[in-house]
Specification:
Layout (H helix, E strand, L loop, with lengths): L15 E7 L2 E5 L3 H4 L4 H12 L4 E4 L1 H7 L8 E4 L3 H10 L3 E3 L8 E6 L2 E7 L1 E5 L5 E5 L3 H6 L9 E3 L4 E2 L4 H6 L9 H7 L3 H12 L8 H10 L8 H12 L4 H10 L14 H11 L6 H5 L6 H11 L3 H13 L14 H9 L5 H12 L2 H9 L9 H6 L5 H17 L6 H10 L1
Helix pairs in contact: 7-9, 8-10, 11-12, 14-15, 15-17, 17-18, 20-21
The chain binds cytidine-5'-triphosphate and magnesium ion (MG).
């Protein structure tokens, strides 16, 4: 019925295949406007330094995936054969500033050129030491670095001359809209259990239809679901949110339940999927917030509290969740055919909730009230025109009386659809 939430990016067709199958990877030339636009003064200067010192420098991972999908990458990570020490010497010799050396242990140096930061990471292999901590070992072998990455579509490198280095058929998978782990799924997941949720998120980003998973992949996820229990709530929530506002979110959330992952990520067990699927359909195309899409599986305030305890959601997300579970059934379109919005605007005007209007907008998305949603988006809270000061001027002195009169006037004003002005409202008292 509805189109896709987001257009799934078409894989770029302008790639020129220059030659194929050199050993077990092939190289291609990518020259798109998104790629060209990366070549700022900063990047050109960076490339020159690596060239001068004869170290290779390539774009790595997510940015390559995005470029091949015709999408402008948000952040671009670089990979190199130079070690962090070698980079430091190189940058120091060229008088280039390096910032926050936090990543250095894992091989990342951040250099600042022409007011732009560049994160460059040494090729590495993750070596497991005690099964919990990964120790890194630097390498100059590009394939080894590709092997430790999560998904084939995230395992490619792009040379600055536009050559694509693809060791695991990532480009083919992207064209076929397949999401696959690199090599053995279970091993990749055990290296970082968050990858289970990354798999779902990228499935939403890449796959054309719900339900086209390799059975082996789903088995590996099911077998390793418990590992999510050891992943920090913040990291889980970041991934889960991206999944919820992407394509196929209802299908993916259902899979989370089918694969028995819910308990490890703060979601209530045994909930009905029906309401969730309906809400997903209703919110299609209305840019719902992640919490709005998730809330149908939250049965009441306790479920929101539990979710917060596990995932450390923001205050704003939590209050929205509480608001939706509280009002999804009792705050509904009124009888007045000519002003269906009235129940909602009255609620907003009387509400002490911060951001009441934006919460009600999410409620209307949840309820699928598209017409009212459009109307409320254009509406702005009218100001009640009478103040205590006005009443004192009319000779009302008792604080209590001022309070009750103001309340009565507010009711008259609301009944008038907020149309009556100050004089009209004040004239209703003198008559009574
Ligand atoms: N758990 C993870 C996280 C990241 N990566 C690798 O590191 C790259 C960069 O990670 P990140 O920036 O977190 O994700 P992106 O894939 O770039 O996605 P996004 O567009 O959301 O940044 C990924 O492409 C992937 O190769 C990985 O293998 N396993
Ligand atoms: Mg990234």
């Amino acid at each position: 019925m509805w189109g896709k939430r987001f257009l799934i990016p078409q894989v770029v067709k302008t790639i020129r295949l220059t030659w194929s199958h050199r050993r077990h990877f092939y190289t291609m030339q990518l020259k798109t406007k998104e790629f060209q636009s990366l070549f700022t003064d900063g990047l050109n200067a960076l490339a020159e330094i690596f060239q001068k010192h004869r170290f290779e420098l390539r774009i790595a991972g997510g940015a390559v995936r995005d470029l091949l999908s015709g999408k402008q990458p948000e952040d671009v990570d670089f990979a190199t054969t130079a070690t962090p020490e070698e980079m430091k010497h190189m940058f120091q010799a060229a008088g280039i500033r390096m910032i926050n050396n936090k990543g250095e242990k894992h091989g990342t140096i951040t250099a600042r050129l022409h007011n732009q930061n560049f994160e460059v990471t040494t090729l590495r292999v993750d070596v497991q030491t005690d099964g919990r901590h990964a120790e890194v070992e630097f390498t100059t072998d590009w394939q080894k670095d590709a092997e430790r990455r999560d998904l084939t579509i995230n395992s490619m490198f792009l040379g600055l001359d536009g050559t694509l280095y693809d060791y695991f058929q990532g480009y083919e998978d992207l064209q076929n809209r397949k999401v696959r782990f690199v090599g053995n799924s279970a091993l990749r997941i055990q290296e970082d259990y968050l990858r289970i949720l990354r798999y779902f998120r990228f499935y939403g980003r890449v796959a054309a239809e719900p339900g086209q998973h390799d059975t082996g992949t789903l088995e590996a996820i099911r077998d390793n679901g418990r590992g999510l229990g050891g992943i920090s709530g913040e990291r889980i929530w970041v991934e889960l949110k991206k999944m919820l506002v992407g394509n196929h979110a209802a299908h993916l959330l259902e899979l989370i339940y089918e694969l028995e992952l819910a308990q490890y990520i703060g979601l209530p067990a045994d909930v009905s999927m029906e309401e969730m699927k309906q809400v997903y359909q209703r919110t299609e195309g209305s840019s719902p917030k992640p919490m709005t899409v998730l809330s149908p599986v939250l049965r009441g305030p306790e479920d929101v509290e539990k979710l917060d305890l596990r995932l450390k959601i923001s205050r704003e997300e939590k209050t929205l969740g509480l608001f939706l579970v509280k009002h999804r059934r009792d705050l509904v379109k009124g009888q007045d055919e000519n002003d269906g919005l009235k129940t909602f605007t009255d609620f907003i005007i009387d509400s002490r909730e911060p951001d009441a209007q934006s919460k009600v907008l999410e409620l209307l998305k949840y309820q699928g009230e598209r017409k009212l949603l459009a109307e409320l988006s254009r509406w702005s809270i009218p100001r009640f025109p009478v103040s205590g000061h006005d009443l004192r001027r009319l000779g009302i002195t008792s604080g209590k009386e001022i309070g009750t009169t103001l309340q009565e006037l507010r009711d008259v004003w609301k009944k008038s659809h907020y149309r009556l002005g100050k004089e009209e409202l004040l004239s209703t008292i003198s008559k009574s």
